[in-house]
Amino acid sequence: MLKGIAASQGIAVAKVYKLQQPVLNIVKRESVPEEELKKLDAAFAKTVADIEKIKEHAAKTLAEEELAIFDAHLMMANDPDLRSQIEDMINNEKVNAEYAADQVADSTIKMFESLEDAYMKERAADVRDVTFRLKCNLMGAEIPNLSTLDEPVIIVAKDLTPSDTASLNKKYSKGFATEMGGRTSHSAIMARSLEIPAVVGCPEILEKAKAGDMMILDAIAGEIILNPKDEEIKEYTAKGEAYLKEKEALKALLNEPSISLDGHKVDIVGNIGSPKDIEGVLANGGEGVGLFRTEFLYMNSETDFPDEETQFEAYKAVLEGMKGRKVVIRTLDIGGDKKLKYYQFDEEMNPFLGVRAIRFCLLHPDIFRVQLRALLRASAFGQLAIMFPMIATLDEFRKGKAILEEEKAKLISEGIAVGKDVEVGIMIEIPAAAVLADKFAKEADFFSIGTNDLIQYSMAADRMSQNVSYLYQPLNPSILRLIKSAIDGAHKYGRWCGMCGEMAGDEIAAPVLLGLGLDEFSMSATSILRARKMIRNLNYEDMKKMADQALDCCTIDEVTELVKKNIGK
Ligand code: PEP
Ligand code: MG
Questions:
Q1: What are the residue numbers of the active site?
Q2: Whose CA is nearest to atom 4 of ligand 1?
Q3: In the chain, what are the domains?
């Protein structure tokens, strides 16, 4: 079995088609510049025409945003700078056009590859794609065209260029496996939008797979089986069919409300760690963002805390991208297991019980203020809710809110636009806050229950320790009672209560949470449709009764059994 990165989910079973690009043997020759320039003209014209044709084919299957890549390629093929560099070399050194094109392409690719920024680095693949086509056209070499496939295959290649991916014929291209690439490479992004199973970054694939071999591509687990046994083929074919059937059925719920059989409506929203992740939330019908973990902005920064502008751009991108849907952004939750490359935390015996999250921000208001300004400025671009993590006391909430109000007043006096209805809420992840929820609800606009921490602190069981992982018990009646206290506290003052810990996406927990009255379920994008399906098949009044019984249970096993019996599992 070979391992790679599952870049686009699904399972395929088919023969291997090795996509091999023509090998160009480019040698330096002394040439007459006028003749070479003429050849170059014709090759550029054909390159532009080829890309336009591929784009036309791609337009049938890809969305407007994905077609932008071909506009970028056309711009590159029409770039006077690229062309004049090649022309200058032909004129000055009297060399053949393909040699000059090869040299210029090489130095341009190297330049992109040397850039720090991951996005810019990946643009080297675009330059390689366009200039390779140019060189093939100069030498009369044919580039394989995947749109001419006539039997089902799994494509195996070093990497797929955007034009390869776009010319894939979905009827016969059952999936692809590449040696190179990561989750953000173009081929991976396109595979996801074409919904073709793909495993990328599999280092041995080209060497191990032979053309015509049977292959199982499990792009859910990121695994590849070459020359599988008959039973394996049967097993994975059935798995693939079941996956597709379920996925198809779930798509019908994309624009449907998350509403129970008896008409009780909840929101199912997504957890994100970067602006890019909203793509998945929207593609899975997320009704908003319930948690943006902003600490990743800080943890990915190399040398210093991210400045106001960098943060503003990230928050604005999410708010704009979510087009008016509610976006809950959590202020910096650092400390515990989350460290920074450029900041030394004080040594503490129990970092999870030490200076973490809001405690850190209140100790370092200068750092906190930068984030609050960025958030408030971004609030003018959508429906923002700001959430403080790890609140234990009302005093902490009041202090945090006061600093926020000060920054808001400053921005307004500077004439900078700030959103009108920014909600300010807290995470309920410390038992003290869950117990005193009704008092918090007088002052906070909403709650979001962070069960990952709430369970760790209630059970006194380090969430990082394998040895006590049996104490992660979301359905333990004690945890359910804390959750009830939080939800009831919120509702007493007309506030809404969500949950953004892992428990919200748990299939056995969701019916109980619905019954307890949870208003918003926030989870990873790929769980959204499955959760919506579940809610739509439940009766809210029945779940309320079941939740009451769950609160009266003694153990997690009793609760689990109760839920299974009620939902017929
Ligand atoms: C939680 O504690 O449940 C939560 C959502 O926050 P994190 O997992 O980031 O600590
Ligand atoms: Mg937490």
A1: 186, 500
A2: 450
A3: 2-20+145-233 (3.50.30.10), 33-139 (1.10.274.10), 246-264+446-495+505-519+526-569 (3.20.20.60)
